[in-house]
Amino acid sequence: MIRLNLFEIMSKRSLSSSSEKVTSSKKLRIEDSSNTENNYAGTLNTIPDGFQISRTRLVTKNHQRDLSGSCVVLWMMRDQRVCDNNAIYYAQSVASKHNIPLKVVFNLVPKFLDATIRQYGFMINGLKEVEQSLRALEIPFHLLMGDPKVNIPKFVKDHDASLLVTDFSPLRVGLGWIQHVAQSLDENTPKKIPLVQVDAHNVVPCWVASPKLEYSARTFRGKISPLIGEYLREVPLPHTNPTGSLIDCSPIDWEAALNSLQIDRTVKEVDWIVGGAKAGELMVEEFIKKRLPNYDTNRNNPTLDNVSNLSPYFHFGQISVQKVVLKLKALKKFGGAVDTFIEEAVVRRELADNFCYYNPKYDSIEGCYGWAKETLQVHQNDKRPYVYTKEQLENAMTHDDLWNAAQIQMTREGKMHGFLRMYWAKKILEWTNSPEEALSIAIYLNDKYELDGRDPNGYVGCMWSIGGIHDQGWGERPIFGKIRFMNYEGCKRKFDVKKFVTKYPPAMSNANVANNQRTLRF
Ligand SMILES: Cc1cc2nc3c(=O)[nH]c(=O)nc-3n(C[C@H](O)[C@H](O)[C@H](O)COP(=O)(O)OP(=O)(O)OC[C@H]3O[C@@H](n4cnc5c(N)ncnc54)[C@H](O)[C@@H]3O)c2cc1C
Fold first, then answer.
1. Of 233, 312, 470, 478, which has the maximum CB count within 10 A?
2. Radius of gyration over alpha carbons of the chain, in Å?
3. Residue nearest to atom 19 of ligand 1 (CA)
4. Per-residue pLDDT tens for 230-249?
5. Ligand 1 centroid – CA 75 distance (Å)
């Protein structure tokens, strides 16, 4: 048993005052380290080189600093990679300081918010690679199956952990698990194991970027931009664990794990993109070579596909945004394109985390701003020119060939072009009976088919399109009220709609069928 006296160093670098506001502003808020003298993780006598301790916060009530135990456990959730991972960096630094090994654990749930084999397959490809990379460093990687609320407290107890570290997501399921696990650890007797959370996903930790719900990209940009330089740092590579650390860790039977999942297997995996850090890095290289030079001018043209295609990798944390941004900046060319990428991948993406973190109703019309709820309510009973069922929409059976093509792109390829996602969601508002129904269908389809689904970006994308989040009021019109409107003619002015539609049969013939049926009905 190792017993350590860790009172000496008290970090002055924590952002306790901003995190205090965080604690009170949301139901699922996790208690953070401001309830100790300073940032808890900073008081553990371990502030790794170049690591900002404000990336961490304490989740358990217990904040004892006399750590005792045989290992540090990292519960990997959102950031499923070995390199450029601040959660691993922090956890391993504490372990090394105390001469104990690091163990990494991932809890695979058999069902997760209706994710299908498409998303699970992509994720498991990445996790296989995580296992290999960790084993090469003699770091055990354990796969637990079932309920994390039960499994994680048991794992840390069975392995006599001195500290549990985890990463950060602003979404309610993960926050709920973490809160539950923290409670179990606090109730554990006689030994209380602290749980520290590290924001390893955002360039600027979510609770540092802003202590409150931001109204728009403009207000958020003003806060995050001055901090990006400070937080954008290389994360050192993990090092090898003490010899013998793999002794109680057998290789994972991934086939059995995959077979045990209770998921929809009809939504097939796609073959144009492969899950995992290595494939992600290749995608970054391809982006730099082929698409970055014109990213700022062509990214909104769906016929060119001049986007990064990195969102599935970012979503599963298989590559870090921070690493990509550092790489692009190091090029010292394509300045306009690099700035545009930073605006999308840092400002807009981290704004989505801000929204979901500070607004518990992030996926509901109730979570929209007052003006938007009011205007949608006023137009609730406006006559819809077309009304489609969820099934008609899912099967791309509308009168609109562009909408059908976008839907087919998503169901077939697992990724709809970003510009079309806005048009797609806005038309669902126009063609269903209520904004609530529209939002629920948009989220359902998005999360069922997109590889990057179930992401803060997705909830915010749907809420922006249908509920005006982060947007302003526009000229009033039927159904939309003051919510920004988009139409087919506008798309025709931006890109060659016919060219895009032709790529996705039967988008056009489905539209003809829908139009004929309509003619017969009237
Ligand atoms: C209705 C709707 C649904 C969406 N659903 C999702 C989703 O489920 N998952 C998801 O990751 N994104 C979603 N988005 C945001 C955006 O469309 C995608 O992130 C983007 O198309 C992903 O492709 P890319 O990586 O090639 O993007 P790029 O244009 O190359 O952008 C680079 C990165 O910037 C970030 N980014 C780009 N656009 C946005 C944006 N509008 N908001 C926040 N971050 C952004 C993403 O992390 C993206 O990977 C949605 C947008 C809308 C309007």
1. 312
2. 24
3. 311
4. 999 999 999 999 988 998 89
5. 27
